[in-house]
Amino acid sequence: MSLARVGAVAGALGLGALLSCGRHPVEEGPRIAVRWTGSDSGEIDAPASAGWCDTLRLLEIRGLVGDTGIGVAVYPSGALRPGRYRVLRPEVADTSRPAAAVALRWFALTSIRGFRAESGAVVLERSAAGAYSGHIEAFTRSVTDNARVTVRGTLRGLTPRPARSGCVPRPPHSDSGAGIH
Question: In this prediction, what percent of the chain has a pLDDT beyond 70?
């Protein structure tokens, strides 16, 4: 191989390394990254989506890699604003605004493990460009047994978009308590 050819190959490899140095395509864009510890442990670092449902006043943040997923629901009192949202059990978070709910699942050796938060906090910050970032700390319990895990992590680069599914007005309440009409 000629010296010129070696130089061209080395230059191309160097340019490729320079272009990719410090940048991992999987880590670009909106992200959610959490670790959980306790009766089980693990982590997820995933692309994140943030869907805003105006009729329900709900921000739904999701991250999914394979069979592992995390969902965060933020229930502001009015418009979505930066701040601290206390984490409550999912069944009461919507009616105890401002609040948040957190759920986590992963595929274990013989089953799917699911956890939902009972307490903690989700903190949202907003950049000058309008994107949301922040952190999560949630204390969760298994949906099938007494196992508990603590979830800690970060959100970054979230730009809420109109929710694509599940964003429908609630049916009006009636005095009869008869549910859906």
Answer: 78
